[in-house]
Amino acid sequence: MGGSNPDEKILSYNDVVLRRSDLDILSGPYFLNDRIIEFYLSYLSSCHASQDVLLVPPSISYWIMKCPLIDSLQEFVEPLHLPAKTLVLFPINDNDDVSKAEGGSHWSLVAFERNDNVFIHHDSSKGINRSDATRLYNRVRRFMSDSGSTSNVRYLECTDSPQQKNGYDCGLYVTAIARVICLWHGDDRKKAKDGSYLWFSAVKEQVTPSSVAEMRNEILGLIRGLMEKKQSLPAG
């Protein structure tokens, strides 16, 4: 990159501002930060534009988990219109220090599916984020319906979620699994013959170490393509 400024803004996409340092993260075997994950989830939202699907930004998920005043959560989550959503994806980060931006060392994903009223946790390093995922579930479940009822809401750990082979690809697993679930939702929302959720099979088949590794190049190419497109647009 020569002497380029790592804090230089390179792309504004929806509400996400990416910086030069984000390209460096994607170019090497590094842990994905909040901005990259938020960017990709925002991109997925644009691709699967549907009023009943919500991909929650990492900062919003984190605040739901860590908000010190639980009574103030209702006002915070109200603009998300959770009762109107049939699919909601929450990225989970294990950062314990709310004062530290870009903290934490592991990402996972919680998916809420309304037809079965279930929260499902996909963790590419089994067990690491379980307490954080259950914390989010316990905080947000009463906001999933207008009545506030939690009697029929369940939480499940996906026991055969694809597992990472290194210590830095967890964010890529989140992006890859989120993409498969969104495709499943738009395609064929049925249960498999064995009673398992259809996206479980799809995730297991499509989220492999090689496909996850390729996500780096894919997201990097996507960002560069959007940068080029923006540069080619006439000013004004």
Could you give a short account of the major beta sheet?
Answer: 5 strands, mixed
The protein's oligomeric status is: single chain
Number of helices: 8
**Unreliable residue runs:** none
Q: What's the count of strands?
A: 7
Lateral strand order in the biggest sheet: 3-4-5-6-7
Architecture overview:
It comes from Trema orientale (Charcoal tree). This is Ulp1 protease family, C-terminal catalytic domain containing protein. Keywords: Hydrolase, Protease, Thiol protease. Belongs to the peptidase C48 family. It holds the Pfam family Peptidase_C48. This protein is an alpha/beta fold and 236 residues long. It has a single domain (9-231), classed as Adenoviral Proteinase, Chain (3-Layer(aba) Sandwich). It is 42% helix and 15% strand. It contains eight helices and seven strands, in the order ββααβααβββαβααα. The protein has helices at 20-27, 34-47, 58-66, 73-77, 130-140, 170-187, 198-206, 209-232; strands spanning 9-13, 16-19, 53-55, 87-93, 107-113, 118-122, 154-157. The strands form two sheets. It has a five-stranded mixed sheet with strand order 3-4-5-6-7, sandwiched between helices. Strand 1 (9-13) and strand 2 form a beta hairpin. Helix 6 (170-187) packs across helix 8. The longest helix has 24 residues, at 209-232. The protein is globular and about 55 Å long. The two termini are 29 Å apart. The mean pLDDT is 89.
List the helices and strands and how they pair.
Elements: E1 9-13, E2 16-19, H1 20-27, H2 34-47, E3 53-55, H3 58-66, H4 73-77, E4 87-93, E5 107-113, E6 118-122, H5 130-140, E7 154-157, H6 170-187, H7 198-206, H8 209-232
Parallel strand pairs: 3-4, 6-7
Antiparallel strand pairs: 1-2, 4-5, 5-6
